[in-house]
Each structure stands twice: as C-alpha cells, then as structure tokens.
Amino acid sequence: MLKMRIVSITIGILASFWIDYGTHYIGGTRCSPNVPYTGGTSSSPSFDPYTDVGPNGCTGQSTAAWRIPLALQILPALILGIGMIFYPDTPRWLLLQERDEEAFRALAKLRRFPSDHPSIVSEALDIKASILLENTYTRDNYNGATGFKLHAAQVSLPLISLYQKTRVDFGKSISLSSQTNPVSAASQLVVA
User: If I label 2, which of 49, 55, 134, 140 is the partner at 20 to 30 A Cα–Cα?
Assistant: First the structure.
C-alpha cells in the first residue's frame, strides 16, 4: 500500500512538472520581446531585470502560461477536497469525542462485521485504551497546555531530548598522545 502511495505521488510530481514545462512557452519566454537584452557581453547578451523590462512591464509571456497549469493541477485537489465532505467520521475521532456507539457502528461498517462481533469490540477497546494513555501522558507532561502551545510542546520536547541524548560531552579530556591509538581515543568520548 505504501509503495502505491509513493508511486502515485511520484507520478503526480512528474505530471505537474511536464504540465508546467509544456505551458511555460505560451506567448514566448522573453519579458519584453521588443526590448533588446542589455546584460552580459556583446557576443552573449543576457536579461538585465533593471533595464530590459518595458514601460508596461513584462508583456512577452501570456498569462495562460501560469493559468493553465494552475487549473489543471487544482482540479484533482478540488475533487479530493469536495470528496472529503462525504467521508464518514473515523472510529478514533468518534472515540475521542466520547461517541462510543457511533464509533462501534463505524468500525463495524469498515470491517463488515456486526457491531457486537468480538474483533470489533476488541479493536474499539484497543483504540479507547490508546486514547486514554495519550490523554494521561498529555495531562502529566503538558499540564494546562492546549491548542498550539500543546502541539509546539509535543513537537519540540522530543527534539530537545534527542539532542540531549546524542550530544557528545567534550568536557572530558581526551589524550591523543603518541601511545594512544585513534580507536581508544574515540572510545573515550562519552555520550551523555
């Protein structure tokens, strides 16, 4: 499943690149076709943005050069965005909102079992247990934080602790005398 996602993302990027490339030349590529280039050398002139723009701005390239790719690439996004309105709520979100009966029905519909089937009950209880564990951890470690502050704390704390666990303590002296080989000197580095 993951490989299909990667392939579809790659194909989407490939298609958007070629759409952009194909429409880039609509109306030409020069800013102002009637204004000669003044930059570079006389044998190899190049565009100078300070002097090679006409009095009415860049008139060489058509606005279709950016409108067509935008329209073609926004179409799938609009279809997905409108389609999301019709998606059902997830069992996890329903359990987070303490709407347990609806969560059981949604999970039963996803798994195509009756809502009182043992596997449905077991999975719903597993989800509920993970939610309770996350809520307990959040309450214990991020007391009083909500919204953006909670999100920022949850993102930054693991990065800070990762830095503290992997930093090298250079306060320890490392003797690199002639009798010490590099392997034993490297083993003297202490990971804090």
Answer: 134
Domain boundaries defined on the chain: 2-84, 91-141
Residue 101 CA to residue 83 CA, distance in Å, equals: 25
43-77: pLDDT as tens digits:
888 888 888 888 887 777 788 888 999 999 899 88
Pairing of strands 168-169, 190-191: antiparallel
Neighbours of 136 (CB within 10 A): 10
Tokens standing for residue 106: 């949604």
Helices 118-141 + 147-166 axis angle, to 10:
80
Q: Write the pLDDT tens digit of every residue in 114-155.
A: 988 999 999 999 999 988 888 888 778 777 777 777 777 777
Q: Sign of the CA dihedral 107, 113, 114, 117?
A: negative
pTM: 0.47
